[in-house]
Design brief:
- By secondary structure, this protein is α/β, with parallel strands linked by helices.
- It has one domain: 2-Layer Sandwich (Glucose Oxidase, domain 3), CATH 3.30.560.10.
- The strands form eight sheets. Strands 1, 2, 3, 11, 12, 13, 14, 25 and 26 form a nine-stranded mixed β-sheet that branches.
- Strand 9 and strand 10 form a beta hairpin.
- It is globular and about 70 Å long.
């Protein structure tokens, strides 16, 4: 810069200020933005929901630098990640104490009264944190059987298998774990994915005895759940093997990219209130962006999407957002004052979950064969917690559990009972009376497939854990609908309609009886098991009495809701096509558990990862 002799001190100062501002360091890029002013005017893709599937999509779609991607998540980004999310023992405790994960989930609320459960309500829970359900679940990492996915009718197991592999880094059991009986098959695993899958350092011989007791009654051990998802097995977890900490969507897919990909933004603690659409062209409505706000009383903002919007808000909130946007059943929307944008009756229908019933038994194992107590015991908790902090071993390394069984109906009951059950299907749909005709048609197809699978050995009807039995393929169907008046900041009305189909109760009753047989096995006699369940005093032949007790004992949800925006034909109640694009819309996809047409006979976490991985390729136009 050249100065003349006439340059005054004040002018020089002004020039210095200008020069300094021109050459000042630019504001550093941040993936996580907290102010609407930092948003771009538009993005290639807007992802609604920063949970399990949303973060997979964000990671994969932003791999292409020509794409700009925005994630909008209702919950917070918690940094540094607290131990309540990372340390597995906390997830074990939180299954029975919702306050532990309270800051990271929506406030619980009751479902609609369930007629088949004596009009009881059930707790409806959902994650509300970046990472979604993968941040607060029990960490069980199991796929369903090939038969489960082949029954979907659109995508099948072979189409999903590469994406199951793509999502995981499987860590084989250690030599010590192999000596305890943990086996594995490398054929169907992935070894370079974002989610680490391994076995906890807190396995004990007593856990293996439960499996042996089951096997003494006929079922067989599965070498690996990825190869055969029906049988008894040691259960892997979404667990970093080295650190013995939770591996989940945030620290697997998004955290490694934070502040590195300048085409990726995360806006947290914002609720999407509506999907925005343009003028209908022919039979298609173009999707233009989203509307969102920080609170019910807060200012509403809009942001545009050049290529489209992807709903990844979960099986409870995705249908809510669709309905708020005028996409759903006109008979439900218009009485609420919502103009129908796309007539799509399947939105919010076909809700499925895994209902379960507790069948607890107390045992007295030798101290060298057990963890020695319960994390609910303050003294034992302190010991286990200290051991974990010092050595990353012991009971605190396990989430929901180490061992379990997923068994077919035919493997736990005799042929006469099986045939009697399956021939006793009463006439009638047993759906909600307001169920649209197309949804009923789709359910009738699912009914046939489910009954056929009940007759097979390669599809699980039950999950058995030492304290509970869960039904894997219920015939009952629930709904997710808007409250009146409609409000994006109110939770939807969830009606699980658990056991509304009579066959579900009859099949679950057989599971209760089998759980009691397991603890009566000579294999467990040395542990002196005592039946502490509500079924203890009931004669096993008195099915009627068992059914009555079940009405007061069954819990509607194992936190595996799915099916409410199903991937199936539109004339069968489907909401999305095989590319996961919403029927009648251009540039609107659903990618979460909502699209799963039939709930798999396993915990749903790995399925959601695989669906999201495949969806990312589908949306990008890659060959799949």
């Amino acid at each position: 810069m050249v100065f003349s002799k006439l340059t005054s001190p004040s002018t020089l100062l002004s020039l210095l200020i200008i020069t300094t501002s021109v050459y000042a360091s630019p504001k550093p890029f941040r993936t996580h933005i907290t102010n609407e002013a930092d948003l771009l005017p538009s993005y290639s893709y807007i992802i609604v929901g920063g949970g399990t599937s949303g973060l997979v999509l964000a990671s994969r779609l932003s791999e292409d630098p020509s794409n700009t991607v925005l994630i909008i998540e209702a919950g917070p980004l918690v940094e540094p990640v607290p131990e309540q999310l990372l340390y597995p023992g906390w997830s074990q405790l939180s299954l029975f104490n919702s306050s532990i994960m309270g800051p990271y989930r929506y406030p619980s609320f009751p479902s609609a009264p369930e007629e088949a459960l004596n009009n009881r309500t059930s707790e409806v829970a959902a994650a509300r944190v970046v990472g979604g359900g993968s941040a607060i679940n029990g960490m069980v990492f199991l796929r369903g059987s090939k038969r489960d996915y082949d029954s979907w009718g659109v995508w099948d197991y072979n189409k999903l298998l590469p994406y199951f592999k793509k999502s995981e880094t499987f860590i084989p059991p250690s030599p010590e774990q192999e000596r305890q009986g943990i086996t594995w098959d490398k054929t169907n695993h992935g070894f370079n994915g974002p989610i680490q899958v391994s076995f906890p350092n807190g396995t004990y011989p007593a856990a293996g005895r439960y499996l042996e007791a089951i096997e003494s009654l006929g079922p067989k051990r599965s070498v690996d759940t990825s190869t055969n998802a029906v049988g008894t097995f040691w259960m892997p977890s979404s667990l970093d093997a080295g650190r013995q900490e939770r591996s989940y969507a945030y620290n697997g897919y998004l955290q490694p990219l934070m502040d590195k990909r300048k085409n990726l933004h995360l806006l947290s603690q914002r609720t999407v209130t509506k999907i925005l659409s343009g003028k209908k062209t022919g039979s298609t409505v173009p999707i233009t962006g989203v509307e969102f706000a920080a609170s019910e009383a807060g200012k509403k903002y809009t942001v545009k999407a050049k290529k489209g919007v992807i709903l990844a808000a979960g099986a409870l909130h995705t249908p809510q957002i669709l309905q708020l946007s005028g996409i759903g059943n006109p008979k439900l929307l218009e009485p609420l004052g919502i103009k129908t944008v796309i007539d799509l009756p399947g939105v919010g229908e076909n809700l499925q979950d895994h209902p379960y019933v507790s069948v607890p038994h107390s045992t007295t194992y030798p101290t060298n064969e057990t963890s020695g107590g319960s994390l609910f015991d303050p003294t034992f908790f302190a010991t286990a917690y200290d051991l974990y902090l010092r050595t990353r071993t012991g009971p605190f390394t396990a989430g929901l559990g180490n061992t379990g069984a997923f068994l077919s109906l035919e493997s736990i009951t005799n042929t006469t009972t099986l045939n009697s059950l399956l021939s006793s299907i009463p006439a009638g749909s047993f759906l909600d009376p307001s169920t649209p005709v197309s949804v009923k048609k789709g359910w009738e197809d699912q009914l046939k497939k489910t009954i056929e699978n009940y007759k097979r050995a390669d599809s699980a009807a039950y999950e058995f854990l030492p304290g509970l039995v869960a039904l894997q393929h219920p015939l009952s169907r629930g709904t997710v609908r808007l409250r009146s008046p409609p409000n994006p900041f109110s939770r939807p009305v969830v009606n699980y309609r658990t056991l509304s189909h009579p066959l579900d109760a009859l099949i679950l009753a057989q599971g209760v009886l089998f759980q009691q047989k397991i603890f009566k096995s000579p294999v467990l006699a040395y542990a002196n098991p005592v039946d502490n369940s509500a079924f203890a005093a009931i004669d096993e032949a008195d099915i009627g009495a068992i059914l009555e007790v079940m009405k007061a004992q069954v819990t509607a949800s194992l936190a595996h809701p799915c099916g409410t925006a199903g991937m199936r034909a539109r004339e069968e109640g489907g909401v999305v096509d095989e590319k996961l694009e919403v029927y009648g819309a251009k540039g609107l996809w659903v990618v979460d558990a909502s699209v799963v047409p039939l709930v798999p006979g396993q915990h749903i976490q790995p399925t959601v990862y695989a669906v999201a991985e495949r969806a990312a390729d589908v949306i990008r136009g890659r060959k799949v």
